């Protein structure tokens, strides 16, 4: 998974915006970049803890 701040440039590329073809091209380009930073996926336990905290805040 890529950090959200690195995904922003790919979201609305071109005149038509977000399409499957544009997404695939952006993913291919991002993976080939050497300086791209990726974030690890959260485990189910981490997701459940975050859910509880968000429910308490709401």
Account of the 3D structure:
The longest helix has 14 residues, at 44-57. This protein has one domain. It starts with a helix and ends with a helix. It has 3 helices and no strands. The radius of gyration is 15 Å and the shape is elongated. The model has no long low-confidence stretch (mean pLDDT 79). With 58 residues, it is mainly alpha-helical.
List its salient traits.
58 residues, mainly alpha
Question: Could you give the count of β-strands?
Answer: 0
- Overall shape: it is elongated
Number of helical segments with 4 or more residues:
3
**How is the biggest beta sheet arranged?**
none
Into how many domains do the coordinates divide? Answer: 1
Question: What's the gyration radius in Å?
Answer: 15 Å
Spans of at least 5 consecutive residues whose pLDDT stays below 50 are none
- Give the helix/strand class: mainly alpha
Q: Provide the helix percentage.
A: 55-70%
Mean pLDDT: 79
β content, as a range?
A: under 5%
Q: From N to C, what is the helix and strand string?
A: HHH
End-to-end Cα distance, whole Å, is 27 Å
List the helices and strands and how they pair.
Elements: H1 4-11, H2 20-32, H3 44-57
Please outline what is shown here.
By secondary structure, this protein is mainly α. It contains 3 helices and no strands.
């Amino acid at each position: 998974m890529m950090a959200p701040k690195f995904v922003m440039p790919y979201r609305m590329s071109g005149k038509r915006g977000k399409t499957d073809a544009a997404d695939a091209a952006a993913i291919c380009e991002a993976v080939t970049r050497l300086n791209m930073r990726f974030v690890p996926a959260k485990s189910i336990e981490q997701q459940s803890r975050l859910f509880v905290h968000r429910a308490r805040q709401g």
